[in-house]
UniProtKB/TrEMBL annotation:
Residues 9-36, 41-68 form the CHHC U11-48K-type domain. It holds the Pfam family zf-U11-48K. This is Gametocyte-specific factor 1. Residues 98-112 have a biased composition (Polar residues). The gene is GTSF1. Residues 88-140 are annotated as: Disordered. It comes from Bactrocera dorsalis (Oriental fruit fly). InterPro entries: TRM13/UPF0224_CHHC_Znf_dom, UPF0224_FAM112_RNA_Proc, Znf_C2H2_sf. Keywords: Metal-binding, Zinc, Zinc-finger. One of its GO terms (molecular function) is zinc ion binding. Residues 88-97 have a biased composition (Acidic residues).
Length: 140
């Protein structure tokens, strides 16, 4: 079994006596919020697990440890790592002259088994047409 170091634990903002594994903190906060309805805490917009008293909220926003993560993505020079050279291809996806695909037409002209649908009289006529279609396809 793995041993947990002190860094794996966090202190609950609702009750300082609660020490919780960081992986379980979110669930703990939900339960603890119900047990401490009188405690008014604001959620940090940078990390929802940061619950801070209203008096300290502005100071927390200026010194939040997760602020650097957001600032990094906000001010990166147009996301340099996403830029790449254009990929040359001979495919043209804008060509729309091929027409629409009709599965019924395709199934009629190829050796595909089709299922009869409808009342018994139409199913009987369908089976008769299918036999003729298969014979014709097998002659080709």
């Amino acid at each position: 079994m793995e041993k947990n170091t002190g860094e794996d634990f966090a202190t609950c903002p609702y009750d300082n006596a609660h020490r919780v594994l960081r992986s379980r903190l979110q669930l703990h906060l939900i339960k603890c919020r119900l047990n401490h309805p009188h405690v008014e805490l604001q959620k940090c917009p940078l990390n929802q697990l940061h619950l801070v008293p209203e008096a300290e909220f502005e100071r927390h926003l200026m010194s939040c440890p997760d602020r650097k993560i957001i600032a990094h993505y906000k001010y990166v020079d147009e996301m340099k790592f996403l830029k790449h050279d254009p990929i040359e291809s001979e495919e043209n996806w804008d060509d729309t002259e091929s027409g629409n695909y009709n599965p019924e037409t395709y199934a009629r002209s190829n050796q595909i088994i089709r299922k009869p649908v409808g009342p018994p009289s139409k199913r009987k006529a369908f089976r008769h047409e299918e036999e003729e279609r298969w014979q014709q396809l097998n002659r080709l």
